[in-house]
């Protein structure tokens, strides 16, 4: 089997941990597999480089920042390869350009465009394990980086290009849980989630895998496994879910939540003004990320629109919206802070009506107010008071995970959506 | 003018110093020059990387060591380019491979074989200052390093390839002195030395410039200047010396010295055995550097040979020589430690007989024993007791530098060699 293994910053955080990672790679090879390894920078070394750059310039040049940050992975890759060679396992470190990872010609957040695998193939065929620097590539002879979670993306892209049998993401948690175990003691590790579920869970705060990496894995059908580099426990598989595998699964896979949510409502936006387009374009151009958007028609001539932003962005966002009042002629802007978002996620929802209703009933029974609702095919999100978020997650975990563990799908299906 | 500037580790030892270097580069450009900059790694950052490698393996793999160490210069080059861009001076950092620096396919001590200057030329012509990582190159797609003093070599190689008008080596001393100012207060900075003089001075302990860089500068006729990055003082020019410029120069340019010298004498080596070749080949293959070698014929059938080694190598060297006694049939091995070497260096010696004699007279008058003598066209070296080395340097500095400052060449020429 050809295995791509990615080790995150914590997993290679010290020379001692690099030794353990080398041992794990050697064991994988001893079991008869071929390995391609992708590493992040050691622990907080990237932060140290960022601090240096800040001492040099308030807004460091993006090209130079990439060249600076890329050294972090080069250090960990060299040390890991050095350790493997020392242990008698042939290995070679490869930087982004050496591994043939071509990206868009942008800095700080480039996307991988193609991988020239000739050199990697040659190493693998010669029994030499390539240790590839994550997070980086090359464009027009310049070093580029892939942005946050970039090493996950590198690993998935390499697995896709090499047609690897599996891509193992080693991190400091041992898999994906039904919800945050710090909030719900009964949270349990999932043996399997779908790419889409993982995307919703990743976006909603289960920061185990970067969403872009999951998207790519889905697109190229790369089987992923998330597991811990500190134990030998089985991790969580992230896979495509077919109609067949869907049968017998729980309706809800996990409960995600997000704190620091604020709501902005724009009241009485005249319909003929294309006001919505203007408002959200303006917010985007100022770098304000908008999450849930809910619109309702007040009368034939105007709409009310509500949306959530990350709480620290609230004042800025309200300022931007208010600056548009004169041109858009809306009535007023309202704001509400101290909110949170709680979501149930599960591919099984598609074929199970009534899931949303069970969520509302659960929250009502727990006496938790719901300020906004948003749904997708595999997710229902409710905006609730920040103070109630942990109670909401616990109650929903009981309803959908703990109780459902014994419940049948047909039972869930009998509820009214 | 096209100026190559090389900044050593101390000169870029902190972000504050990098800011000062950026200012100096900007000033050079403001005076109408084009700049290509070569940087070493920040301060002791290379030592930190070496320490990491030692935690990974007793004998780190050479390829991975090069890849690891190369990050040091990449960090300083990125930060310096970042600073220049921040100051409004267009600049781009280039690693060894980006700058087109091809080397031999060996690790740890590669020689530059060629430089593909297209990218550098393009940047220079576009008004963008290239900031090149010193000490490193590329061979067969692998990162190589040039060994100790490698950044000097990079700078000279780039100056030669780009036909630069001058190569300025910025360091933490303000030039080359007639001798070590810590030993002789009257030591004065030289405005000019020849490549050959610089080579002898560099080899003999004035560690301002790496000998290989001086050799290359001589070979490609690159005009060098050694100066301080901490002041605006004029430095020392290292140039070719012609018959014309030789006239009017002092006979002796500088007094070099080296401590920790030990002497080994092999007595009664039979002539027919090719014993010398065996002895010195054996020492070389064990990594023992031999410096002064003196041989004298005892009778028609045997020779005595004496040579010096670095004192810490003495026991090892004696052991190697003694192990050859059975096969080479020499009489015995003698050893002497606690020695030092003092040398007078000057291109003017070639045309001035009697310089050696004046050296011996000076040492005799100072009551200093001379154990070995070795001469080249521009150097006379004497091995003396370690305890006497500072007195020897002072006395020779008086004779050849301080007194000669007023003396004429013809006067020196009248002495008998």
Descriptive overview:
- The structure is a homodimer.
- Chain A has about 425 residues and is of the alpha/beta class.
- Chain A folds into 3 domains: about 1-240, Carbamate kinase (3-Layer(aba) Sandwich); about 260-335, Alpha-Beta Plaits, CATH 3.30.70; about 340-415, VC0802-like, CATH 3.30.2130.
- Helix content of chain A is about 35%, strand content about 25%.
- Chain A has 14 helices and 18 strands.
- The first copy, chain A, has helices at about 15-30, 45-55, 60-85, 120-125, 150-160, 195-205, 210-220, 245, 275-285, 315-320, 325-330, 355-365, 390-400, 410-415; strands at about 1-5, 35-40, 90-95, 100-105, 110-115, 130-135, 135-140, 140-145, 165-170, 190-195, 225-230, 235-240, 255-270, 290-295, 300-310, 330-345, 370-375, 380-385.
- Chain A has an 8-stranded mixed beta sheet, sandwiched between helices. A 6-stranded antiparallel beta sheet of chain A has the order 14-15-13-16-18-17. A two-stranded antiparallel sheet of chain A has the order 4-5.
- The longest helix of chain A is centred in the first third of the chain and has 25 residues, at about 60-85.
- Chain A is globular, with a radius of gyration of 24 Å.
- At the A-B interface, helix 1, helix 2 and helix 3 of A face helix 1, helix 2 and helix 3 of B.
């Amino acid at each position: 089997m050809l295995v791509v293994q990615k080790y995150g910053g914590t997993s290679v955080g010290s020379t001692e941990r690099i030794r353990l990672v080398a041992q794990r790679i050697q064991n994988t090879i001893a079991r008869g597999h071929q390995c391609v390894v992708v590493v992040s920078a050691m622990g907080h070394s990237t932060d140290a480089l960022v601090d240096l750059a800040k001492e040099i310039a308030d807004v460091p040049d993006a090209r130079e920042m990439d060249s600076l940050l890329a050294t972090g992975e080069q250090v960990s890759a060299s040390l890991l390869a050095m350790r493997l060679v020392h242990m008698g396992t042939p290995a070679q470190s490869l930087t982004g350009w050496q591994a043939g990872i071509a990206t868009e010609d942008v800095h700080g957040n480039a996307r991988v465009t193609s991988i020239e695998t000739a050199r990697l193939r040659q190493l693998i065929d010669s029994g030499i394990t390539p240790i590839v620097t994550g997070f980086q590539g090359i464009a027009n002879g310049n070093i580029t980086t892939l942005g946050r979670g970039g090493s996950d993306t590198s690993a998935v892209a390499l697995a896709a290009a090499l047609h690897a049998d599996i891509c193992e993401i080693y991190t400091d948690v041992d898999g994906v849980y039904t919800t945050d175990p710090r909030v719900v003691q009964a949270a349990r590790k999932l043996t399997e989630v779908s790419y889409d579920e993982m995307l919703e869970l990743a976006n909603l705060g289960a920061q185990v895998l970067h969403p872009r990496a999951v998207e790519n894995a889905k697109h190229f059908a790369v089987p992923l496994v998330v597991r811990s580099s500190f134990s030998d426990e089985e991790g969580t598989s992230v896979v495509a879910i077919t109609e067949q595998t869907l049968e017998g699964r729980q309706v809800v896979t996990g409960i995600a939540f997000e704190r620091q949510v604020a709501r902005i409502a724009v009241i009485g936006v005249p319909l003929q003004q294309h006001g919505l387009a203007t408002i959200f374009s303006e917010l985007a151009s100022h770098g304000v990320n908008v999450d849930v958007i809910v619109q309702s028609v007040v009368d034939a001539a105007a709409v009310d629109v509500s949306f959530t932003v990350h709480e620290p962005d609230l004042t800025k966002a309200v300022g931007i919206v208010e600056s548009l009042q004169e041109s858009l002629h809306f009535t007023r802007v309202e704001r509400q802070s101290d909110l949170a978002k709680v979501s149930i996620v599960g591919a099984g929802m598609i074929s199970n009506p009534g899931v949303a209703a069970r969520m509302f009933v659960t929250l009502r029974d727990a006496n938790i107010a719901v300020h906004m609702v948003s749904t997708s095919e595999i997710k229902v999100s409710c905006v609730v008071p920040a103070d109630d978020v942990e109670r909401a997650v616990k109650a929903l975990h009981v309803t959908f995970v703990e109780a459902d563990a014994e419940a049948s799908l047909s039972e869930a299906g009998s509820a009214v959506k």
